[in-house]
Structure to design on (444 residues):
């Protein structure tokens, strides 16, 4: 359902930080975050002075406050006693923009952010980052400690359910987890989280069991999606659980369930009084590999950005190894769009499709993979049928949705070794299906 955003304005004398914190708690308490997504303070708001603030309300119709908000006690709080104008009208963002300032902090109610003075706006896009070779020389003790912090992150995301990209970054910062863009990608590969097409919001995936290949007499499943300590305690009553850290500790531990009989396990779980919904999705790696489209079809599904005027920006084109300056995008390929060459970061990293004259946005590695294909660079992977291990060059990493099929074969993010990404427990059938769709040559 399409919603209209309106702003309600109020006057208040007190501490801006306390106001934000208290309203944040109430919005979360009343479960109104989907209707009241943010708050904007008047520029220069200071304690012990009268200042204005505006709450954004997502409405079904213009000028109408949803019943979920009006019937709650939110607007009865003392902070909302005095309106900005008589008659308590609603405002558009354009009407209050000059008052609050375009660069003013936005406060996410689902994860309260303390008030800070106005700062310069910083462009941030969860899809854009610079490719690096994974390097981790941590000791087992360090890996264990890091893994525990990622586990806490997954618990936090599971409890919250959904939120904004800003709230995700703040959670990573609180847990001292660096590079949230890469963290987001790893959690998606593992089937724990999904994000909106434009990357502005995330949501936790449903709790699922994914069947993986087993070297024992047991049937083995890995746990994906929403997770909690109580859920794990419940599962331990009916199955043998094995916990193993990711190779570098840079993701939540893999939880593997070993079952004598999966059907009996699910029957017992249904009959129990637990409150958790657990779905058996079977061999997700094979299923995903079978339904994924050819790379050209996947390209057509990418988000297209409209209204880009090339002459207004500086450009760099990916030549297969590096980004090099160019006058203007004229050929199909991967480009960085810069405000000026002196800027500290590009505004966007995009793929330009000359045939359709469109600018496509997607995961960084996916765009690079497309660029390699259009540069006619041969893409190669190596497969060991004895160990069921697939090796992909870190310089030719596959688009995220295809890589996810490899990761779900084991529930483990790839190991980095000698400039190669090593994926474990991948069936030959999966390798053939995906490599054919990506036009990748596989050497056995």
């Amino acid at each position: 359902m399409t919603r209209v955003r309106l702003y309600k304005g109020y006057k208040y004398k007190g501490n801006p930080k306390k106001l934000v914190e208290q309203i944040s708690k109430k919005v979360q308490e009343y479960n109104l975050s989907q209707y009241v997504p943010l708050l904007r303070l008047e520029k220069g708001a200071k304690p012990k002075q009268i200042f204005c603030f505006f709450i954004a309300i997502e409405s079904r119709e213009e000028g109408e406050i949803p019943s979920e908000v009006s019937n709650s006690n939110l607007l009865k709080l003392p902070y909302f006693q005095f309106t900005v104008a008589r008659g308590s009208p609603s405002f558009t963002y354009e009407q209050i923009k000059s008052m609050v300032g375009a660069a003013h902090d936005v406060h996410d109610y689902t994860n309260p952010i303390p008030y800070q003075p106005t700062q310069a706006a910083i462009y941030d896009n969860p899809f854009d980052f610079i490719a690096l070779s994974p390097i981790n020389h941590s000791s087992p003790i360090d890996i264990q400690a890091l893994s525990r912090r990622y586990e806490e992150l997954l618990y936090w995301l599971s409890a919250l359910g959904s939120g904004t990209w800003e709230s995700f970054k703040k959670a990573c910062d609180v847990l001292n987890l660096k590079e949230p863009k890469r963290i987001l990608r790893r959690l998606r590969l593992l089937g724990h989280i999904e994000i909106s097409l434009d990357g502005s919001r995330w949501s936790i995936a449903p709790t699922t069991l994914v069947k993986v290949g087993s070297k024992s007499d047991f049937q083995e499943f890995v746990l994906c999606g929403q997770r909690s300590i109580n859920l794990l305690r419940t599962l331990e009553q009916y199955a043998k659980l094995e916990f193993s850290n990711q190779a570098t500790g840079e993701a939540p531990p893999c939880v593997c369930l070993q079952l004598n009989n999966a059907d009996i396990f699910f029957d017992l779980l249904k009959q129990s009084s637990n409150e958790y919904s657990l779905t058996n999705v079977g061999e997700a790696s094979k299923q995903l590999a079978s339904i994924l489209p050819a790379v050209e079809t996947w390209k057509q599904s990418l988000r297209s950005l409209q209204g880009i005027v090339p002459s207004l920006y500086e450009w760099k084109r990916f030549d297969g190894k590096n980004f090099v300056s160019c006058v203007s995008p004229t050929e199909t390929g991967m480009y960085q769009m810069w405000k000026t060459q002196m800027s500290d970061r590009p505004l966007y990293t995009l793929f330009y499709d000359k045939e359709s004259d469109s600018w496509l946005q997607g995961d960084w590695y996916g765009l690079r993979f497309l660029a390699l294909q259009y540069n006619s660079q041969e893409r190669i992977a190596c497969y060991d049928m004895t160990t069921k291990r697939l090796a992909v060059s870190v310089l030719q990493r596959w688009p995220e949705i295809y890589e996810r099929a490899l990761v779900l074969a084991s529930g483990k993010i790839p190991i980095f070794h000698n400039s190669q990404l090593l994926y474990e427990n991948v069936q030959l059938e999966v390798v053939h299906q995906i490599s054919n769709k990506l036009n990748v040559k596989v050497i056995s």
The chain has a mean pLDDT of 85. The longest strand covers residues 4-14. The CA atoms of residues 315 and 329 lie 7 Å apart.
